[in-house]
Amino acid sequence: MDESYDVIVLGTGLTECVLSGLLSVDGKKVLHIDRQDFYGGESASLNLSQLFKKFREEVPEHQLGRDRDWCVDLIPKFLMANGELANILVHTKVTRYIEFKQIAASYVYRSGKIAKVPSNEYEAVRSSLMGIFEKRRMKRFLEFIANYKEEDVSTHSGLDLDANTMSEVYYKFGLESGTKDFIGHAMALYSNDEYLEKPARETYDRILLYVQSVARYGKSPYIYPLYGLGELPQGFARLSAIYGGTYMLDTPVDEILYDDAGKFAGVKTKEGTAKAPIVIGDPTYFPEKVQKTGQRVIRAICILKHPIAQAADCDSLQIIIPQNQVGRKNDIYIATVSYTHNVAAKPYYLAIASTIIETDNPHVELKPAFDLIGEVEEQFISVSDLYEPKADGKADNVFISKSYDASSHFETTTDDVKDIYERVTGYPLILKKREVEDEEELNAS
């Protein structure tokens, strides 16, 4: 293998595989290495045997079906239909390798029950989340979001999105605290209330993304790949290979090499030495160059033989439990998919609950989620520290991705992709505008 490359990528998590694909398309000679024998890293989808081995070190006798019927995500996230990851999939045409299915509904928890999140003024009028007068106020708010035009002051309702806080925007429309909860947490998808005292621009953009994503397919703003999220890194790996990228799975890195100036120079593996001026990798490959963010995430993978009771007609859904509803500082998320997505044997469902840990008893923190999920056939719980790089990588040409956070979607992951891409190349990632034929490529059944 003693050879030179433009870029070496360590780890096959989604972030690393997207960057490998993008840089290969740019004409870079890319070598991609992973110590594991499957794609996906921390964002992999595992079959049943792999799942039991990871969490319990042995595979017991069970009645859950064949290994090949299961693709269980380690990191529960959905794609926003109009989000940046969807844009990257279309831009790179990775959509030709992956089939998507709509997530049936998005729900929010309130006063012990769940209700569908209203995504437009018509759903707001019918929502069980609000009384008749609040529905009118919510309708006016959503009309403001839909009709706002930067160049037309008459659509601004006297507000300046860069000067007024989101709290002031809510006050302008007279919205109640419960309504603010589901707008901020189930539409803008914030995990806490820090956004309230910040300029409203980002929240406006987030709500608009949610509304436009719902409008694209209906039902919910989310889509999901058949056979699990592990299909995403594999799709980008295939893209990289088509453009000349080289992949080596099941290949531990014996040594990371640096030159006399402390800059990255290459890696040693059982196959020999590979040289490159730049490396991109996940935090596990550079423990001395990353730091804990101070946050830890608990995730509980639950195998069910039934749908979520309060949404029994849904084969898939997201439930957001806003922190205020259960006396917390951070939201709890539940992502549910099923055998209809080719991730479980029939008639099973997968419900994965996650949140940022706030106490010394993280299992107890997920009780509101477990109460909604109901009876469980099997449960696998993990607790993970979140890491981020100590430096931007420009001094030593070591560019490290961030850990996958507790959020329910990939927007923060694609922010990391775009940030690393610009630091590596020196120019921003420009995604081409979707054409009509591209719209067809991202069809979700």
TrEMBL record:
GO BP of this protein: protein transport; small GTPase-mediated signal transduction; vesicle-mediated transport
Protein origin, superkingdom: Eukaryota
Gene3D superfamilies given in the database record: FAD/NAD(P)-binding domain, Guanine Nucleotide Dissociation Inhibitor, domain 1, Guanine Nucleotide Dissociation Inhibitor, domain 2
GO molecular function list: Rab GDP-dissociation inhibitor activity
Record InterPro entries: FAD/NAD-bd_sf, GDP_dissociation_inhibitor, RabGDI
Pfam families referenced in this protein's UniProt entry, alphabetically: GDI (PF00996)
Gene Ontology CC annotations of this record: cytoplasm
Record-stated family: Belongs to the Rab GDI family.
Protein name, as recorded: Rab GDP dissociation inhibitor
Organism: Saccharomycopsis crataegensis
